[in-house]
Amino acid sequence: MIRVVLAQPRGFCAGVERAIEVVERALRKYGPPIYVRHEIVHNRHVVEDLRTRGAVFVDELDEIPPGAMTVFSAHGVAKSVEEEAAERGLPVIDATCPLVAKVHNEGRRYARQGREIVLIGHAGHAEVEGVIGQVPAKVYLVQTVDDVAKLEVKDPEKLAYITQTTLSVDDTRGIIAALIERFPAIVGPDVRDICYATQNRQQAVRDLARHVDMLLVVGSRNSSNSNRLREIGAEMGKPSYLIDDADALRGEWFQGIATVGLTAGASAPETLVQGVLDGLRRFGEIEVCNQNGVAEDVRFRFPAQVADV
Fold first, then answer.
1. Does the annotation place 195 within a ligand binding site?
2. Distance from first CA to last CA of the chain, Å, rounded?
3. Is 224 flagged in the annotation as binding?
4. Is 187:111 a contact under the CB 8 Å cutoff?
5. Domains, the chain, ranges and CATH?
6. Catalytic residue check, 127
7. Is 289 annotated as a binding residue?
8. Which of 172, 245, 246, 284 stands 20 to 30 A from 113 (CA)?
9. What is the pTM of this model?
10. Catalytic residue among 127, 129, 157, 181
11. What phi and psi values does residue 34 have, to the nearest 5 degrees?
């Protein structure tokens, strides 16, 4: 018998739910195809499901036919992408998560103050590329404390920092501390830019890891917040696996394991969690219980184009 403890909270956050429903509402209102720049959220199953319903995912706007309804993903886009869409006359629905948009606004506010910006984030991530492209100032990307040590800026007295929304809270605090030590005049939002859902899921995993023998995280490889959850479990000394779905489960993982913690990244649907529970039953009897945790009730408004659908 394996005891499985379900993390609370887990899975979809309000920004992801909103982004997916924006595409679903657009398909209902305008009919397929709806073109989406980049994956609407970083989950293979979600993307494939929307694709079967008529969403077409593209890397760049030049892949979209003239006049076709276009959706920007939850991760946000650079100002240049917005301008290109306007030049081409593409009707756009912006599904950028409001918490990512808040980081854009903070960056622009610091730029208006004449500051250079340090962005704490992961190189190449869609959200990071969008933030850099939204801030009309010099932006330095740092990923580690070591990056801070090597950072050369124009004016240490006119510096601000902002952060990607899906980072590890603990790692980010360390990087912020290093920035403040090196550049005492720097200003920024502490870890408030890390979204509530990311923080809640990380705290749930920290609490869970104290009481389980192993951690399973449902999420895609390119999901930043899902990767952070697996890393937290590993840092706490527990075997921790990031899996797309039940097909990734391996019987040998469960030798000598009595209790498994199960969570899901903010872009992973609950159906995949339930599928993993079914998959675990292939290896024997399981007992499922729920962790006591934060109940989330955040809801974001929809863009005007699909608010009435």
1. yes
2. 47
3. yes
4. no
5. 2-12+196-290 (3.40.1010.20), 14-97 (3.40.50.11270), 99-182 (3.40.1010.20)
6. yes
7. no
8. 172
9. 0.94
10. 127
11. -110, 130
